Amino acid sequence: MIEFKAECGHTVRAKDENAGGVVRCSYCGREADVPDTKEDDLDFLFREVDQSDEGGGRKKRKRKGGKSLFHALARGRGGRPFDPFAVVLKLCYVAFLIAAVIFVGRTYLLPLLKSDGVADQIAELKKKTETPRQRQPRGGSDPKPQAGRGLIGREKIKGLYVMSTPPGASVHFMRADQLPPSGRLQQLPGADGIPSGRSSPIKRPGAGTYVVEVAFAMNNPKLKQFEGYRDFRRRVERGTPAERTRLVRRFFLPDEADRAFVQEEDGQFFIVRQYEGVTLQKNGVQDVRALFLPRATKGDKGAFAIEALVAQHIPPDAQYAFDRDNITDELSYYQVAPTDQHAVLEALSRIGVIPYYDVTEKSIRLFKIDIQDGSIRAPFIRETEP
């Protein structure tokens, strides 16, 4: 037997076989829909009366008799009271099932995957497919201090390192015991050449003591950009060998060269600098840094105009890393004028070497950054004699 409330509120009883059909209310005489006993426990929450509009097309759904959702919950299926315990019990069953699946997976499946190496392979594949972080380019006018780094981009230099400023010089070297009393090394037996045009060539000739030669043709375009170079070149070509050497010494900044001279070969003049006693240890490094930069003076007699040199003739990119605060302190110790310190630091960061006229000592000191660890050396140097 099915019991339910009609729209008038009167309780109607109908047989089970009338489920889903229509019976007449004995109280008001109106027809009443008999609930379908096959509905799920929660279906009655959404059961609404289907009413057709005048067009006979679309159907609307609404609660019967304006009854509230609370009233529907209280009435339940077939007019019987709603039992919330049954719904809660079903939800507990579902939660228990999910917890059991998680427990079994973590306890048995994951160790199985790890023992077979599957998880490791997946992690390794993920690592390989990840986009690697791009290494940041180094350079700029103020390189950050880096322990054990003197020359940026060349962490482990071994052998003979030679550079020139401006770049593009021809470089040759040979063992010191084979050095002739005079002249160039270029065409001598036993001389080894490094291709011209490279600013920092490296060779590994083996342990020993060498002589290194760095030379520029006088018609080199980079040299011709120097102020007063045209007149200097003309005087060199017309002078005697001794006069040529003196002119070279006056025009170019000094460096660690032991000999500087001009040599003519087949009508072409070359400015040559030779560096003796370059000792290379096994698996070690030795460097030669030649300067072919114009000498400009300022103020005190013999002082160099470092600011103009940096602005006009030294490449802008930093090549050497060092502790800037420590090097600044060293410059102060060696009595470099505060007005010159910034320019000297810039020169050291770009080419790693710069001569400076010591007013107190009345001599030239060469500041030089070590290419391996970024430390500084500051030896006195003498002007190259004819």
Identify the overall geometry: rod-shaped
Helix share, percent: 25-40%
The helix/strand order is: EEEEEEHHHEEEEEHHEEEHHHEEEE
Radius of gyration: 47 Å
Secondary structure class reads: alpha+beta
Beta content comes to 15-25%
Biggest sheet layout: 5 strands, antiparallel
Cross-sheet strand order for the largest sheet: 9-8-11-13-12
Question: What is the mean pLDDT?
Answer: 78
Q: What is the count of distinct domains?
A: 3
The number of distinct β-strands equals 18
Total helix count?
8
> Could you name the ranges where pLDDT drops below 50 across 5 or more consecutive residues?
38-70, 128-148
User: What is the terminal separation in angstroms?
Assistant: 131 Å
Overview of the molecule:
- A 5-stranded antiparallel β-sheet has the order 9-8-11-13-12. Strands 15, 16, 17 and 18 form a 4-stranded antiparallel β-sheet that branches. A 3-stranded mixed β-sheet has the order 10-7-14, with no helix packed on it.
- It has 3 domains: 2-82, no CATH class; 85-115 and 120-124; 159-381, no CATH class.
- The longest helix is centred in the N-terminal third of the chain and has 32 residues, at 84-115.
- The protein is of the alpha+beta class and 386 residues long.
- The chain has helices spanning 69-75, 84-115, 118-129, 229-238, 241-251, 306-313, 324-333, 338-351; strands at residues 2-5, 11-14, 22-24, 31-33, 49-52, 59-62, 159-165, 170-175, 192-194, 202-203, 208-217, 259-265, 268-280, 285-291, 353-358, 363-369, 376-377, 380-381.
- It is built from 8 helices and 18 strands.
- The N and C termini lie far apart (131 Å).
- Helices cover 27% and strands 24% of the residues.
- The model is unreliable at 38-70 and 128-148 (pLDDT under 50).
